[in-house]
Description:
The protein has about 240 residues and is mainly α. The chain is about 85% helix and about 0% strand.
Amino acid sequence: MAGLFADDDARKQVKQLEARIVKLEQALASTEQEKEQYIRSTLDLQMQMEALNTELRKLRGQNEEMLHNLQDAEKRQKDFYIDLDTRLRRIEAGDATAERVVGTKDVSADPVSENRAFEAAYSFYKAENYPNAATAFRDFLKNYPQSAHEANVLYWMGNANFLLKDCKNSVNSYQSLINKYQDHPRVPEAMLNIADCQLNLNNKTTAKKTLKQLISQFPGSDASEKAKKRLAAIK
């Protein structure tokens, strides 16, 4: 009998050991899965960080390029004004030689200087430096009255003044564009901005007239659709 009980106890101990082994194996398997998941998560995070670093380097490069282009355009604009100012000062001082030089070579006949001046003025606008942009565009029209850029300059000058809330000069620029270049693609937008200026000045009757004219002349345009909404909103 003693031997039988001993066998039963041994079997129980073996079963208990087997159960413990199974639990340990399950715990080990779970730990391995967690380890693998942690490794995968870490690798995914590293890949995301590398992608973000790559994008950041790309954006920094683009920013540096834009800054360089802006600085280059500002330098060209500054050089242009310095050169022009020097010539004018010589003329005002009675320098006959300088006067003959300027007289034989009109600044407005120099396409290289003309394009540089336009680029410089537009660079101010793109950089949201609207006061300098408005001044540069105005000076451009004085120096190059026959320029092929005139229509665009009138539009961008109008925009610069519009963003400066200078409605008077803004409307004057837009109106010059409309009067001289009736078929220019920017005319509908110019008319819409004129109406906005008129509303800002509380000239509702004039604004309504401008909006109706825009809708009539340029049906189907984006500006026309916006004009319809503005017209409906005027009380």
